[in-house]
Design brief:
231 residues, Serine Threonine Protein Phosphatase 5, Tetratricopeptide repeat, elongated, two-stranded antiparallel sheet, disordered N terminus, mainly alpha
C-alpha cells in the first residue's frame, strides 16, 4: 500500500527527530566520560592529542597535557538479560529495523562495537534512507576508532541535519583523525557558529590550528573554549 504524502513526511520528521536525539545522547555520554571517544594517534603533547594507554582504557586530551582515562564498560547482569531479550526479538523479526537498532544500541552500551556495527549495516541495507540508523552507525564507528569508515555516514547526517552543531562536531572529529585538517577545521567552525558555547568545538579548532602551525590563532581558540566552558 502506498502511504499518503503526509504520512511519509511525518515519518521523515520522526527519523530526523530520533537522529537528533541520538546525537545529543552521544554528546552527553562523551562530555560526561561515560562513553569515551578514542583519542588521536600519537603522544600527548599538550594540545589535546593523546592515544590509548595500552591497558584497555581510552584517553582524552584536555588541552593542558594531562590525559583522563576511562575504564572499559563492563556489562551487568541486566545488560545480559536485555541483550538476550533483544536477540529473541531479532530472531522473531529479522527484518525489523527498529529492533536491529535497539540491539545495536545495547551492544554498543556493552562495548561490543563490531556486533553493533553488523546490526546497523544490516538495518541500513533494509532502509538506506533511515537517518537514525546512519547516525547510530556513525557514532558506533567513532567509538570503535574507525574514523575513515565513519566519515561518509557523518557527511550524510550533516547534509540532513545541517542545523546540528553536534553532527558537525563529530564530523570534525572523524576528519581530524584521518588528517583532513582543512575539512576538520571547517566542520568545527560550523559547529561553533551554530553553538557559540560549544567548548569542545572551540577547543578542537585550537587543536587543528596547532597542527597547521598557526599557534597564535590556536591560543585564541583555547581561550575562547575555556570561557565557553566556564559559562
Amino acid at each position: 500500500m502506498i502511504k499518503p504524502e503526509n504520512d511519509r513526511q511525518a515519518t521523515a520528521r520522526d527519523r530526523a527527530r530520533v537522529a537528533a536525539e541520538l546525537l545529543e545522547e552521544a554528546r552527553f555520554l562523551t562530555d560526561t566520560g561515560e562513553i569515551p571517544i578514542p583519542a588521536p594517534n600519537g603522544p600527548a603533547n599538550g594540545n589535546g592529542h593523546g592515544n590509548g594507554n595500552g591497558n584497555g582504557h581510552h584517553s582524552n586530551g584536555n588541552g593542558n597535557g594531562k590525559r583522563i582515562s576511562y575504564p572499559a564498560a563492563r556489562p551487568s547482569l541486566s545488560d545480559t538479560d536485555r541483550l538476550a531479550a533483544l536477540d529473541g526479538a531479532v530472531a522473531a523479526q529479522p527484518e525489523s529495523v527498529p529492533v536491529l537498532v535497539d540491539r545495536a544500541k545495547q551492544l554498543g552500551a556493552m562495548g561490543r562495537y563490531t556486533a553493533a556495527r553488523a546490526d546497523l549495516e544490516r538495518a541500513l541495507v533494509l532502509e538506506p534512507a533511515n537517518l537514525a540508523v546512519r547516525t547510530t552507525l556513525g557514532i558506533v564507528l567513532l567509538r570503535k576508532g574507525l574514523w575513515a569508515d565513519a566519515v561518509p555516514h557523518l557527511r550524510e547526517v550533516v547534509d540532513a541535519e545541517s542545523w546540528s552543531p553536534t553532527a558537525w562536531f563529530y564530523l570534525g572529529e572523524a576528519l581530524n583523525h584521518i588528517d583532513d585538517l582543512e575539512g576538520a577545521l571547517a566542520a568545527y567552525v560550523r559547529a561553533a557558529e551554530l553553538d557559540p558555547r560549544h567548548a569542545k568545538a572551540l577547543h578542537a579548532q585550537g587543536m587543528v590550528l596547532d597542527r597547521l602551525h598557526r599557534p597564535e590563532e590556536a591560543a585564541l581558540l583555547y581561550r575562547r573554549s575555556r570561557e565557553a566552558a566556564a559559562r
